[in-house]
Amino acid sequence: MKRLVIGVLALIGSTGICSTAFGVITGSDHDFSGSNWSSGQICLPCHAPHNGTVIADAPLWNHDVSEASYTLYSSATLDADDLSQPAGVSKLCLSCHDGTVAIDAFTGHDGTIFIGTIGTGSGDLGSALNNDHPVSFTYDSALATADGGLWDPSSKSSGITEGGTIDSDMLFAGRMECASCHDVHNKYENTSLLLIDNDGSNLCLTCHNK
Ligand code: HEC
Ligand code: HEC
Ligand code: HEC
Ligand code: HEC
């Protein structure tokens, strides 16, 4: 009897651990498994195990990518000097979020549904990124020093993982991207798929020393 009780407790314990460890993309804005074009799958519109699209720095990418040319952020006080056309993981986000490529356009499926036409429609950033937080530039100790109002990403804790820094937890090869603020898989279950809840501007204050 005692063994049975322990067995049941172990089972409950392990189920609890599994449900957190496997993340929460299910039911998020990025779960298209309920759509008739996704073959009932979650990952497929974005990733495929075989024969996907080969994009630099992209994890097994399956979605059609945008050919748009973007208007970049600029300001008199911006110190970053290598702001480029969105690349790496930001290009992947914009393959749906600039509104030029259909959400359901991926290998083996021609798309017809565009971002502004489903959900709230607010996810359409367009190709003018000059009114959005800059992405696709290097954020390193030198930039922090030059700016004076940024934490040093190589030593400032992100608060996301034990011992993790801004650089290790939020940057991609030392660069700021869309996924420096968002988790596409909704791992942290914050509003707007944020890496860090922005209550009290906590997300902003992780990098900006204001
Ligand atoms: C809406 C598009 C989208 C969906 C759906 C999606 N992903 Fe991703 N995934 C991305 C993007 C974009 C990246 C790169 C950005 C990043 O790593 O944060 C990524 C990165 C990854 C990575 C490499 C980085 C890491 O987090 O380990 C893995 C592995 C991955 N995805 C697996 C999956 C699996 C498995 C599913 C389905 C359960 C899935 N993804 C669903 C867009 C998606
Ligand atoms: C396969 C297409 C696709 C890709 C790729 C994709 N998204 Fe989305 N995303 C969507 C759709 C569709 C919605 C719902 C939009 C709406 O309601 O207007 C959405 C919603 C969101 C939202 C709003 C979530 C909320 O709860 O309010 C955020 C934030 C977001 N996406 C960020 C990203 C980021 C960052 C990436 C890349 C790391 C990315 N997305 C990649 C299709 C995509
Ligand atoms: C510096 C942090 C940061 C970066 C970088 C960033 N976002 Fe966001 N994003 C936010 C925050 C915070 C919100 C919450 C809603 C708001 O304040 O507009 C948000 C909201 C969104 C939404 C939901 C729109 C809405 O009005 O609900 C989408 C979609 C989105 N971001 C996509 C992207 C994409 C795509 C990129 C890269 C081109 C990106 N974000 C880069 C911080 C960021
Ligand atoms: C992952 C780190 C990170 C996060 C999180 C972040 N930022 Fe930034 N932000 C930067 C970096 C780096 C720059 C580039 C600064 C420069 O080059 O002068 C920047 C630039 C800016 C600028 C433009 C500065 C200028 O001189 O034109 C503003 C304004 C800004 N961020 C506000 C925000 C707000 C508001 C939030 C929260 C919603 C936020 N940031 C979140 C890293 C971050």
TrEMBL record:
Name of one Pfam family that matches: Paired_CXXCH_1
Plastid found in the keyword field: no
Ranges for domain Doubled CXXCH motif: 176-210
Entry keywords, A to Z: Signal
Signal peptide: 1-23
Name listed for the protein in its UniProt record: Doubled CXXCH domain-containing protein
